[in-house]
Amino acid sequence: MHEKSIWLSREFDKPLVTASYFGFRPIETPRVSKEDIVLREEYGSHPYFDVAENAAFIRVYLERGLQSEMLPLSVVYKRSSPNRGIDKYSLHFVGSSQGIADAMLIRGALSMLEDFGCKHLVVEINSVGDKESMSSYERELHSHLRKSMSDFSETVREQIKKDVFNLFNFDLPETESIRHSAPSPISSLSTQSRSYFKEVLEYLETLGIEFHLAHELIGNRKFCSQTIFRIREENGSSENVVAVGHHYSKLGKRLGLKREIPMASATVFGTHNAQQDTERMKMKIYKDLPKQKFCLVHLGKEAKMRSLPLLEQLRKERIRVHHSLGKDKIAVQLSSIEGTPVSHLIIVGQKEALDGTATVRNVATRAQTTISINELPLFLKHISL
Questions:
Q1: N or C, where is the chain less crowded by C-beta within 10 Å?
Q2: In angstroms, rounded to a whole number, what is the distance separating the alpha carbons of residues 360 and 82?
Q3: 137 by DSSP, 3-state: which?
Q4: Which domains are seen in the chain, by residue range?
Q5: Which residues sit opposite 361 in a β-bridge?
Q6: pTM
Q7: CB burial of residue 121 (10 Å; 0-12, 13-18, 19+)
Q8: How far is CA 371 from CA 347, 359, 360, 375, in A?
Q9: Buried b (16+ CB within 10 A) or exposed e, 174-191
Q10: What is the torsional sign of CA 284, 285, 286, 292?
Q11: Biggest alpha carbon distance in the chain?
Q12: Tens place of pLDDT for every residue, the chain, 385 residues?
């Protein structure tokens, strides 16, 4: 897939550039239509998980013909809110049934937040699984609440009868104890969902990202599924939610897709205090993204695990590479660079992953060198000179 085929945006600030290092391609911001707002009213509003935003992207996905692009597909766009002084960045990862989708979203969100000067970031993560998992968990919650319903106010009882998951939407003293003692959704995961979530956590551990399991993080169960996460910034006595993420695959067929395909997204909130607002105002606007002279190719699951931290390492050195971490077959990975001016391949196979090395191959001469991962950025910089 050539980048310009879906590049509708032609200006990029630093967070958009940062997202591009992880393979997210900037597109024009989808317009939220009246139909999307109606959907928000139907599914219910949520402070962080917005069905209208997801619906707007799915419409663009259909109308712009993005479904004809090779999957997985990853894009990013910026939604400005001048009146509120807050920019939102939405990242979408479409078509991957592997944990790499969540890992890319979380790693990309963390790096973008660094652009705003955010520090002391905490990742909280949970999984509500698939339809089977959620049905099982719903039964567990009903059983857990049966003896406590009489202790709640009439308003809370009515809301819980309407939807048992509303338990987590009430930040009230009367529900605090029962929320904390509620069973974890992870205990109700189906075999397939448990395996998926385990893979996500393995990626985070490989990335060196500290995380906390948060069983109260449910999202909107009418359209959220699988992994749900949020990133908080701890600042003295205060805390801010600066990013959230979830899967919304259920919406696809409702809005016109012929079949349900995996869809996951993350939303990064731009500014939260005066210092970060100053950082945003000073951001340079770019007319193009950094060139890609290299292509990162992985062979096997272990190599994929080791390649994702490498992207962050290269980003810090401002080396942007072609990559297809959402794909497995090498022929498919290489097809993404057809017609592009790539001079070298960076190959990480099973042996390299175990040795902590990468093989750099000259595309024209096929001459190659195996080098330590830690020395790779400097090596590539000498090639680019």
A1: C
A2: 46
A3: helix
A4: 3-129+190-281 (3.30.930.10), 131-187 (no CATH), 294-384 (3.40.50.800)
A5: 345, 368
A6: 0.90
A7: middle
A8: 11, 6, 8, 7
A9: ebeebeeebeebbebbbe
A10: positive
A11: 77
A12: 444 455 566 778 889 999 999 999 999 899 998 988 988 888 877 778 889 999 999 998 888 877 777 788 999 999 886 555 578 899 999 999 899 999 999 999 999 998 888 888 999 999 999 999 999 999 998 888 887 888 888 888 888 888 888 888 777 777 788 888 888 999 999 999 999 999 999 999 999 999 999 998 988 888 899 999 999 998 765 568 899 999 999 898 889 888 889 999 999 986 555 455 555 555 678 778 888 889 999 998 889 988 999 999 999 999 999 888 888 888 878 877 777 788 999 999 999 999 999 999 998 899 999 999 999 999 998 886 5
Per DSSP (E only), the strands in 204-261 are 211-213, 225-235, 238-247
Q: Note the Cα 85 to chain centre separation in Å.
A: 23
Contact 6, 25 (CB under 8 A): yes
Q: Distance (Å, rounded) from C-alpha 275 to C-alpha 261?
A: 40
Give the distance, in angstroms, between the CA of residue 105 and the centroid of all CA atoms in the same chain: 2
Strand partners, 86: 81
Name which of 181, 182, 191 is nearest 129 in CA terms.
Answer: 191
Give long-range contacts, CB 8 A cutoff, 24+ apart: 66-73: 66/6, 66/94, 67/257, 69/1, 69/5, 69/6, 70/1, 70/332, 70/335, 70/336, 71/95, 71/96, 71/261, 71/326, 72/96, 72/101, 72/326, 72/327, 73/1
